[in-house]
Amino acid sequence: MTRHYNFCAGPAAMPTAVLERARDEMLDYRGHGLSVMEMSHRGEDFVAIAERAEADLRELLAIPDNYRVLFTQGGASLQFAALPYNLLGAGGRPNFLHTGIWSKKAIAEARHLAGDVHVAASSEENGHSAVPRQGEIVLSDDAAYLHYTANETIGGLEFDYIPEARRPDGTEVPLVCDMSSSLLSGPLDVSRFGVIYAGAQKNIGPAGLVVVIVREDLLDQARDDMPTLFGYRALSEAGSMINTPATYSWYLAGLVFDWLKTDVGGLSAMDAINRRKAARLYAAIDGSALYANPITLRNRSRMNVPFVLADPRLDRLFLDEAEAAGLLNLKGHRSVGGMRASLYNAVPEAAVEALIDFMADFEKRRG
Ligand code: PMP
Protein backbone atom coordinates (compact mmCIF):
# COMPACT_ATOMS: atom_id res chain seq x y z
CA MET A 1 0.00 0.00 0.00
CA THR A 2 1.30 3.46 -0.90
CA ARG A 3 -0.31 6.68 0.18
CA HIS A 4 0.74 9.47 -2.16
CA TYR A 5 0.97 13.09 -1.13
CA ASN A 6 -2.39 14.72 -1.80
CA PHE A 7 -2.61 18.47 -2.38
CA CYS A 8 -6.32 18.51 -3.25
CA ALA A 9 -8.33 21.62 -2.30
CA GLY A 10 -11.23 19.45 -1.12
CA PRO A 11 -12.20 16.76 -0.53
CA ALA A 12 -8.72 16.91 0.90
CA ALA A 13 -6.08 14.75 2.55
CA MET A 14 -7.10 13.04 5.79
CA PRO A 15 -4.59 12.26 8.54
CA THR A 16 -3.36 8.71 7.95
CA ALA A 17 -3.67 7.96 11.68
CA VAL A 18 -7.39 8.82 11.48
CA LEU A 19 -7.98 6.55 8.50
CA GLU A 20 -6.15 3.72 10.26
CA ARG A 21 -8.29 4.11 13.31
CA ALA A 22 -11.45 4.20 11.19
CA ARG A 23 -10.23 1.08 9.41
CA ASP A 24 -9.65 -0.73 12.70
CA GLU A 25 -13.11 0.27 13.95
CA MET A 26 -14.88 -0.21 10.63
CA LEU A 27 -16.52 -3.62 11.06
CA ASP A 28 -16.88 -3.70 14.81
CA TYR A 29 -16.93 -0.36 16.59
CA ARG A 30 -15.19 -0.90 19.92
CA GLY A 31 -16.85 -4.25 20.62
CA HIS A 32 -20.38 -3.10 19.79
CA GLY A 33 -20.57 -5.61 16.92
CA LEU A 34 -21.47 -3.14 14.19
CA SER A 35 -20.03 -0.28 12.16
CA VAL A 36 -20.66 3.33 13.14
CA MET A 37 -22.39 3.83 9.80
CA GLU A 38 -24.90 1.13 10.76
CA MET A 39 -25.87 2.71 14.07
CA SER A 40 -29.10 4.52 14.79
CA HIS A 41 -28.31 8.21 15.02
CA ARG A 42 -30.56 8.38 18.07
CA GLY A 43 -29.00 5.40 19.83
CA GLU A 44 -26.85 5.83 22.91
CA ASP A 45 -23.62 4.84 21.13
CA PHE A 46 -23.86 7.32 18.28
CA VAL A 47 -25.08 10.10 20.56
CA ALA A 48 -21.94 9.54 22.66
CA ILE A 49 -19.77 9.82 19.51
CA ALA A 50 -21.58 13.01 18.49
CA GLU A 51 -21.30 14.62 21.91
CA ARG A 52 -17.64 13.75 22.19
CA ALA A 53 -16.93 15.32 18.81
CA GLU A 54 -18.63 18.53 19.88
CA ALA A 55 -16.82 18.61 23.22
CA ASP A 56 -13.45 18.15 21.50
CA LEU A 57 -14.18 20.85 18.93
CA ARG A 58 -15.21 23.20 21.74
CA GLU A 59 -12.00 22.47 23.57
CA LEU A 60 -9.80 22.91 20.47
CA LEU A 61 -11.30 26.29 19.56
CA ALA A 62 -12.08 27.36 23.14
CA ILE A 63 -15.66 28.03 22.02
CA PRO A 64 -17.43 30.18 24.65
CA ASP A 65 -20.55 28.73 26.37
CA ASN A 66 -22.88 31.21 24.70
CA TYR A 67 -22.24 29.62 21.29
CA ARG A 68 -24.07 26.62 19.85
CA VAL A 69 -22.31 24.13 17.59
CA LEU A 70 -24.27 22.50 14.77
CA PHE A 71 -23.26 19.53 12.64
CA THR A 72 -25.39 19.93 9.57
CA GLN A 73 -25.43 19.16 5.83
CA GLY A 74 -25.80 20.70 2.39
CA GLY A 75 -22.24 21.97 2.09
CA ALA A 76 -21.02 25.45 2.88
CA SER A 77 -23.06 26.51 -0.16
CA LEU A 78 -26.31 25.75 1.61
CA GLN A 79 -25.23 28.12 4.38
CA PHE A 80 -25.01 30.89 1.78
CA ALA A 81 -28.82 30.58 1.63
CA ALA A 82 -29.47 29.60 5.25
CA LEU A 83 -27.72 32.68 6.63
CA PRO A 84 -30.07 35.34 5.29
CA TYR A 85 -33.06 33.24 6.40
CA ASN A 86 -31.63 33.00 9.90
CA LEU A 87 -30.47 36.59 10.28
CA LEU A 88 -32.88 38.84 8.39
CA GLY A 89 -36.00 38.43 10.55
CA ALA A 90 -35.80 42.05 11.67
CA GLY A 91 -35.07 43.33 8.16
CA GLY A 92 -31.97 45.20 7.12
CA ARG A 93 -29.51 44.34 4.40
CA PRO A 94 -26.75 41.75 4.37
CA ASN A 95 -23.35 43.40 3.94
CA PHE A 96 -20.44 41.62 2.29
CA LEU A 97 -16.73 41.81 1.70
CA HIS A 98 -16.10 40.66 -1.85
CA THR A 99 -12.69 39.02 -2.14
CA GLY A 100 -13.08 36.31 -4.76
CA ILE A 101 -15.14 33.47 -6.12
CA TRP A 102 -16.54 32.11 -2.85
CA SER A 103 -17.62 35.44 -1.44
CA LYS A 104 -19.19 36.23 -4.81
CA LYS A 105 -21.24 33.05 -4.60
CA ALA A 106 -22.34 33.90 -1.07
CA ILE A 107 -23.41 37.36 -2.28
CA ALA A 108 -25.39 35.91 -5.20
CA GLU A 109 -27.23 33.49 -2.95
CA ALA A 110 -28.13 36.17 -0.38
CA ARG A 111 -29.52 38.32 -3.20
CA HIS A 112 -32.08 35.64 -4.00
CA LEU A 113 -33.70 36.18 -0.64
CA ALA A 114 -32.75 39.68 0.42
CA GLY A 115 -33.16 41.24 -3.03
CA ASP A 116 -30.56 43.84 -2.30
CA VAL A 117 -27.23 43.46 -0.58
CA HIS A 118 -24.48 45.97 0.16
CA VAL A 119 -20.87 45.29 -0.76
CA ALA A 120 -18.99 47.04 2.06
CA ALA A 121 -15.61 46.60 0.37
CA SER A 122 -14.19 44.67 -2.56
CA SER A 123 -10.79 43.58 -3.80
CA GLU A 124 -12.02 43.37 -7.39
CA GLU A 125 -9.95 46.38 -8.41
CA ASN A 126 -6.67 44.72 -7.44
CA GLY A 127 -7.69 41.44 -9.06
CA HIS A 128 -8.28 39.90 -5.62
CA SER A 129 -4.60 40.05 -4.81
CA ALA A 130 -5.00 41.93 -1.50
CA VAL A 131 -7.94 42.04 0.94
CA PRO A 132 -9.54 45.37 1.83
CA ARG A 133 -8.09 47.08 4.88
CA GLN A 134 -10.30 47.95 7.83
CA GLY A 135 -10.41 51.62 6.85
CA GLU A 136 -11.81 50.74 3.42
CA ILE A 137 -14.80 48.83 4.81
CA VAL A 138 -17.97 50.93 4.84
CA LEU A 139 -21.15 49.22 6.01
CA SER A 140 -24.58 50.45 5.04
CA ASP A 141 -26.77 52.28 7.59
CA ASP A 142 -29.18 49.35 7.46
CA ALA A 143 -26.57 46.56 7.70
CA ALA A 144 -28.02 43.43 9.34
CA TYR A 145 -24.69 41.59 9.39
CA LEU A 146 -21.29 41.58 7.70
CA HIS A 147 -20.21 38.43 5.85
CA TYR A 148 -16.70 37.65 4.69
CA THR A 149 -14.64 34.70 3.50
CA ALA A 150 -11.61 34.22 5.74
CA ASN A 151 -9.70 32.31 3.08
CA GLU A 152 -10.56 32.30 -0.61
CA THR A 153 -9.75 28.70 -1.49
CA ILE A 154 -9.48 29.29 -5.23
CA GLY A 155 -7.64 32.61 -5.23
CA GLY A 156 -5.36 31.70 -2.33
CA LEU A 157 -6.20 35.00 -0.60
CA GLU A 158 -6.46 35.06 3.19
CA PHE A 159 -7.45 37.76 5.68
CA ASP A 160 -4.60 38.67 8.00
CA TYR A 161 -7.00 40.26 10.50
CA ILE A 162 -10.57 39.90 11.78
CA PRO A 163 -12.62 42.82 10.43
CA GLU A 164 -14.77 44.98 12.66
CA ALA A 165 -18.44 45.11 11.71
CA ARG A 166 -19.87 48.52 12.57
CA ARG A 167 -22.49 50.61 10.83
CA PRO A 168 -21.56 54.24 10.12
CA ASP A 169 -23.36 55.26 13.35
CA GLY A 170 -21.00 52.98 15.33
CA THR A 171 -23.46 50.21 16.21
CA GLU A 172 -22.01 46.75 15.92
CA VAL A 173 -23.62 44.08 13.74
CA PRO A 174 -22.89 40.33 13.77
CA LEU A 175 -19.77 39.26 11.90
CA VAL A 176 -20.42 36.15 9.80
CA CYS A 177 -17.54 34.19 8.37
CA ASP A 178 -17.11 31.41 5.84
CA MET A 179 -14.14 29.51 7.26
CA SER A 180 -14.47 26.47 5.03
CA SER A 181 -10.80 26.33 4.16
CA SER A 182 -9.23 27.80 7.28
CA LEU A 183 -11.13 26.64 10.38
CA LEU A 184 -8.86 24.56 12.66
CA SER A 185 -5.70 25.67 10.83
CA GLY A 186 -4.77 27.60 13.98
CA PRO A 187 -6.23 29.22 17.12
CA LEU A 188 -9.21 31.54 16.69
CA ASP A 189 -11.00 34.10 18.86
CA VAL A 190 -14.53 32.77 18.35
CA SER A 191 -16.01 35.53 20.52
CA ARG A 192 -15.43 38.04 17.70
CA PHE A 193 -18.02 36.31 15.51
CA GLY A 194 -21.79 35.99 15.28
CA VAL A 195 -21.68 32.96 12.99
CA ILE A 196 -18.80 30.82 11.73
CA TYR A 197 -19.41 28.04 9.25
CA ALA A 198 -17.25 25.57 7.37
CA GLY A 199 -17.74 22.68 5.00
CA ALA A 200 -15.92 19.68 6.45
CA GLN A 201 -13.97 18.45 3.45
CA LYS A 202 -10.77 20.42 4.12
CA ASN A 203 -9.62 20.51 7.74
CA ILE A 204 -12.51 18.74 9.45
CA GLY A 205 -13.26 15.45 7.77
CA PRO A 206 -14.98 13.91 4.77
CA ALA A 207 -17.52 15.79 2.66
CA GLY A 208 -21.14 15.61 3.74
CA LEU A 209 -20.88 17.62 6.92
CA VAL A 210 -20.92 21.32 7.73
CA VAL A 211 -19.99 22.81 11.08
CA VAL A 212 -21.84 25.96 12.15
CA ILE A 213 -20.88 27.87 15.30
CA VAL A 214 -23.53 30.43 16.17
CA ARG A 215 -23.88 32.90 19.03
CA GLU A 216 -27.01 32.20 21.05
CA ASP A 217 -28.55 35.66 20.79
CA LEU A 218 -28.74 35.20 17.00
CA LEU A 219 -31.07 32.21 17.26
CA ASP A 220 -34.06 34.54 17.41
CA GLN A 221 -33.41 36.65 14.32
CA ALA A 222 -34.92 34.29 11.76
CA ARG A 223 -37.52 35.00 9.11
CA ASP A 224 -40.90 33.27 9.54
CA ASP A 225 -40.76 31.65 6.12
CA MET A 226 -37.57 29.73 6.81
CA PRO A 227 -37.41 26.07 5.76
CA THR A 228 -37.13 23.94 8.91
CA LEU A 229 -33.79 22.37 8.09
CA PHE A 230 -32.11 25.76 7.59
CA GLY A 231 -32.98 26.91 11.08
CA TYR A 232 -30.17 27.33 13.60
CA ARG A 233 -32.55 27.30 16.57
CA ALA A 234 -34.37 24.19 15.39
CA LEU A 235 -31.11 22.40 14.60
CA SER A 236 -29.62 23.36 17.92
CA GLU A 237 -32.67 22.25 19.93
CA ALA A 238 -32.68 18.91 18.10
CA GLY A 239 -28.96 18.32 18.71
CA SER A 240 -28.46 18.69 14.92
CA MET A 241 -30.81 15.72 14.47
CA ILE A 242 -34.00 17.16 13.01
CA ASN A 243 -33.52 14.49 10.40
CA THR A 244 -30.81 11.89 9.90
CA PRO A 245 -27.41 13.57 10.14
CA ALA A 246 -24.29 12.56 8.19
CA THR A 247 -23.35 10.11 10.93
CA TYR A 248 -20.19 8.61 9.48
CA SER A 249 -18.72 11.98 8.50
CA TRP A 250 -19.53 13.25 11.99
CA TYR A 251 -17.72 10.28 13.54
CA LEU A 252 -14.68 10.84 11.31
CA ALA A 253 -14.67 14.54 12.19
CA GLY A 254 -14.55 13.43 15.83
CA LEU A 255 -11.50 11.30 15.07
CA VAL A 256 -9.85 14.29 13.38
CA PHE A 257 -10.55 16.50 16.43
CA ASP A 258 -9.05 13.82 18.65
CA TRP A 259 -6.00 13.59 16.36
CA LEU A 260 -5.55 17.38 16.56
CA LYS A 261 -5.73 17.31 20.34
CA THR A 262 -3.71 14.19 21.02
CA ASP A 263 -1.28 13.65 18.16
CA VAL A 264 -0.67 17.25 17.07
CA GLY A 265 -0.99 18.86 20.50
CA GLY A 266 -3.67 21.46 19.76
CA LEU A 267 -4.17 24.37 17.39
CA SER A 268 -1.13 26.43 18.38
CA ALA A 269 1.10 23.50 17.46
CA MET A 270 -0.88 23.00 14.25
CA ASP A 271 -0.54 26.69 13.43
CA ALA A 272 3.26 26.56 13.79
CA ILE A 273 3.46 23.57 11.42
CA ASN A 274 1.14 25.21 8.90
CA ARG A 275 3.13 28.44 8.92
CA ARG A 276 6.36 26.53 8.33
CA LYS A 277 4.85 24.59 5.41
CA ALA A 278 3.50 27.70 3.71
CA ALA A 279 6.67 29.73 4.28
CA ARG A 280 8.79 26.97 2.75
CA LEU A 281 6.64 26.72 -0.37
CA TYR A 282 6.28 30.46 -0.94
CA ALA A 283 10.04 30.88 -0.52
CA ALA A 284 10.62 28.21 -3.16
CA ILE A 285 8.18 29.93 -5.53
CA ASP A 286 9.64 33.40 -4.96
CA GLY A 287 13.18 32.09 -5.40
CA SER A 288 12.51 30.54 -8.78
CA ALA A 289 12.35 31.96 -12.29
CA LEU A 290 9.70 29.47 -13.42
CA TYR A 291 7.00 29.76 -10.74
CA ALA A 292 5.03 32.79 -9.53
CA ASN A 293 2.28 33.61 -7.01
CA PRO A 294 0.37 36.90 -7.47
CA ILE A 295 -0.91 37.53 -3.94
CA THR A 296 0.33 40.39 -1.79
CA LEU A 297 2.57 39.05 1.00
CA ARG A 298 0.31 39.83 3.96
CA ASN A 299 -2.64 38.02 2.38
CA ARG A 300 -1.01 34.89 1.06
CA SER A 301 -3.07 31.90 2.11
CA ARG A 302 -1.45 29.38 4.41
CA MET A 303 -3.83 26.69 3.21
CA ASN A 304 -4.06 27.15 -0.58
CA VAL A 305 -1.01 28.16 -2.58
CA PRO A 306 -1.80 28.89 -6.23
CA PHE A 307 1.12 29.34 -8.60
CA VAL A 308 1.60 29.66 -12.34
CA LEU A 309 4.42 28.52 -14.59
CA ALA A 310 6.16 31.20 -16.67
CA ASP A 311 5.38 29.09 -19.73
CA PRO A 312 1.83 27.67 -19.47
CA ARG A 313 2.68 25.16 -22.21
CA LEU A 314 4.60 23.30 -19.50
CA ASP A 315 1.51 22.92 -17.28
CA ARG A 316 0.47 19.52 -18.59
CA LEU A 317 3.97 18.12 -18.34
CA PHE A 318 4.34 19.50 -14.80
CA LEU A 319 1.14 17.82 -13.69
CA ASP A 320 1.93 14.51 -15.36
CA GLU A 321 5.41 14.35 -13.93
CA ALA A 322 4.18 15.42 -10.48
CA GLU A 323 1.60 12.68 -10.49
CA ALA A 324 4.20 10.12 -11.56
CA ALA A 325 6.28 11.31 -8.58
CA GLY A 326 3.35 10.67 -6.21
CA LEU A 327 2.30 14.33 -5.87
CA LEU A 328 -1.44 14.41 -6.53
CA ASN A 329 -4.07 17.02 -7.33
CA LEU A 330 -1.87 20.03 -8.06
CA LYS A 331 -4.03 21.33 -10.89
CA GLY A 332 -5.41 24.82 -10.24
CA HIS A 333 -9.15 25.46 -10.16
CA ARG A 334 -10.71 25.27 -13.62
CA SER A 335 -11.67 28.95 -13.45
CA VAL A 336 -8.09 30.19 -12.98
CA GLY A 337 -5.80 27.48 -14.39
CA GLY A 338 -2.18 27.06 -13.32
CA MET A 339 -1.39 25.08 -10.20
CA ARG A 340 -2.59 25.04 -6.63
CA ALA A 341 -1.08 23.20 -3.71
CA SER A 342 -3.42 22.94 -0.75
CA LEU A 343 -1.52 22.52 2.50
CA TYR A 344 -4.29 21.59 4.95
CA ASN A 345 -3.59 20.17 8.40
CA ALA A 346 -3.32 16.57 7.17
CA VAL A 347 -0.66 17.42 4.56
CA PRO A 348 2.63 16.63 6.32
CA GLU A 349 5.76 18.76 6.14
CA ALA A 350 7.42 15.91 4.25
CA ALA A 351 4.85 16.38 1.46
CA VAL A 352 5.81 20.03 1.11
CA GLU A 353 9.51 19.14 1.03
CA ALA A 354 8.82 16.53 -1.65
CA LEU A 355 6.88 19.08 -3.68
CA ILE A 356 9.62 21.70 -3.38
CA ASP A 357 12.26 19.16 -4.45
CA PHE A 358 10.15 18.14 -7.42
CA MET A 359 9.57 21.76 -8.45
CA ALA A 360 13.27 22.57 -8.30
CA ASP A 361 14.15 19.48 -10.29
CA PHE A 362 11.47 20.22 -12.88
CA GLU A 363 12.72 23.78 -13.27
CA LYS A 364 16.28 22.57 -13.76
CA ARG A 365 15.25 20.11 -16.43
CA ARG A 366 12.50 22.04 -18.23
CA GLY A 367 12.60 25.67 -17.14
N1 PMP B 1 -16.65 28.41 0.69
C1 PMP B 1 -15.35 28.13 0.52
C2 PMP B 1 -14.32 29.09 1.04
C3 PMP B 1 -14.98 26.96 -0.15
O1 PMP B 1 -13.68 26.67 -0.34
C4 PMP B 1 -15.97 26.08 -0.62
C5 PMP B 1 -15.65 24.78 -1.33
N2 PMP B 1 -14.45 24.65 -1.89
C6 PMP B 1 -17.31 26.43 -0.42
C7 PMP B 1 -17.61 27.59 0.25
C8 PMP B 1 -18.42 25.56 -0.92
O2 PMP B 1 -18.43 24.40 -0.18
P1 PMP B 1 -19.40 23.18 -0.50
O3 PMP B 1 -18.90 22.52 -1.71
O4 PMP B 1 -19.27 22.35 0.75
O5 PMP B 1 -20.77 23.74 -0.67
From TrEMBL:
Q: Where can this protein be found?
A: Cytoplasm
* Residue positions where N6-(pyridoxal phosphate)lysine is found in the record: 202
Instruction: Please provide one cellular component term from the Gene Ontology annotations of this protein.
Output: cytoplasm
InterPro entries listed in its UniProt record: Aminotrans_V_dom, Pser_aminoTfrase, PyrdxlP-dep_Trfase, PyrdxlP-dep_Trfase_major, PyrdxlP-dep_Trfase_small
Q: Where does L-glutamate bind?
A: 42
Residues in domain Aminotransferase class V? 5-355
- Gene3D superfamilies for the chain: Aspartate Aminotransferase, domain 1 (3.90.1150.10), Type I PLP-dependent aspartate aminotransferase-like (Major domain) (3.40.640.10)
Q: Which Pfam families match?
A: Aminotran_5 (PF00266)
Swiss-Prot/TrEMBL catalytic activity:
O-phospho-L-serine + 2-oxoglutarate = 3-phosphooxypyruvate + L-glutamate; 4-(phosphooxy)-L-threonine + 2-oxoglutarate = (R)-3-hydroxy-2-oxo-4-phosphooxybutanoate + L-glutamate
What processes in GO biological process is this protein linked to?
L-serine biosynthetic process; pyridoxine biosynthetic process
Instruction: Summarize where pyridoxal 5'-phosphate binds, as residue positions.
Output: 76-77, 102, 153, 178, 201, 243-244
Which top EC class is named for this enzyme in its record? Answer: transferase
Q: Any idea which GO molecular function terms this record carries? A: O-phospho-L-serine:2-oxoglutarate aminotransferase activity; pyridoxal phosphate binding
Purpose: Catalyzes the reversible conversion of 3-phosphohydroxypyruvate to phosphoserine and of 3-hydroxy-2-oxo-4-phosphonooxybutanoate to phosphohydroxythreonine.
The record's family statement is: Belongs to the class-V pyridoxal-phosphate-dependent aminotransferase family. SerC subfamily.
Subunit-level organization: Homodimer.
Question: What HAMAP family does the entry give?
Answer: SerC_aminotrans_5
Q: Which PANTHER family match?
A: PHOSPHOSERINE AMINOTRANSFERASE
**What protein does this entry describe?**
Phosphoserine aminotransferase
Source species, please? Halomonas ventosae
